[in-house]
Predict the 3D structure of the following.
Amino acid sequence: MLKKIALATTLSVALASSLSANVVKANDGLGDFLIAPLYQAAGNVCTEVRVTNTNETSSILAKVAFRERISSQEVDLPIFLSPGDVWSGTVCNENGRVLLRSTDDSNHPSAMGVLKAGKDLTAQSNASGHSNVDFSEGYVEIYPIAQFNEGSKNKVQKSVLVKRWDNLVDGNINDRKLSKRGVNGYSLNGEVLFKTGYKGIVTATQEMTAFKGAHQKQLTGSVISYGNDTSPEVLLGMKSKQEILKILQNSTVAFTYDNSGEAQYIAFTYPFGYTAAQTRSYRVVVRDMEENKIEETVIFSPVPVKTNAMNNEVAILSVADIIAQTSNPAMFSKGQIQIQAIRNVSNTQLGSGEKASFIATYIRQSNINEKDRVIDAKYVATKK
């Protein structure tokens, strides 16, 4: 939470006319719930997060939650998007502190000053009672709160949207423009931009994973203020949370590599875990791609095919380290790696022994001079 606001602590109240029951589905780019599977704020790498309201005739109220890599402890803030509006914020490591900065007018007025100066995510998390956190890497969630049908494409003043937010926190649902069907499943889009070096050069972009049908009930009261931790069980409901976990439940991911895996990594993000004592087991298969023939031949490596362990909510594997474990590293200068049989060891997500729910991201890094570092990040296929 960025800052507790002096607002009424009305208990959560659902609209009398409940939203239609939906089934959550993965959506291509657009949705009502978004996950950015990776941000980095380490060394000279910063990450800009952008959230777009693609609905041209409705305003959207939402929450942005930055979750750190160890146990998904969060710092959140509300955003207020008029039709066609965009919010952005950037996280950087400055002298060992991970700071979130944003000068966007879509922030709550009470947070403008601290966001402009830079909000220390670790300090805020510690002040909220959390210890052993690492915000240098993590992921971001965008939660839907409410939609207001404006009936036109005209700009809506942010003061109006903030007042609507405050009314919802007070339990007031009498606004005639408040959508009784919740946030449209095609209203939100998001991306992260990796920026490197003292010039802040954008070296890669990554689209957020989108889900449709997650906003199944309109909440009001203290649970939507940012004086409380953001919880998917509350803001989305247990049903939506479980459905999202099932969508992301996978056991295999594959990607290609070159240059013996140097400066290449694969990041696994495990959302909805929220515990420091968590472990996933997995196996690795390395394949060499023989290029000296007319038709490419794939040779399977017998090693390493063994059980390993991944800890934390965001785990990053070094491709070079994996190649070094093979019986003949020189044979595997270029090829494919499969991470298989990824299962929960601890009782997290959908349970101990179950397939883990994750989003995988391939990362390539290369030094281009002393001040700049290139990051090329892209999604890795995560089909069941």
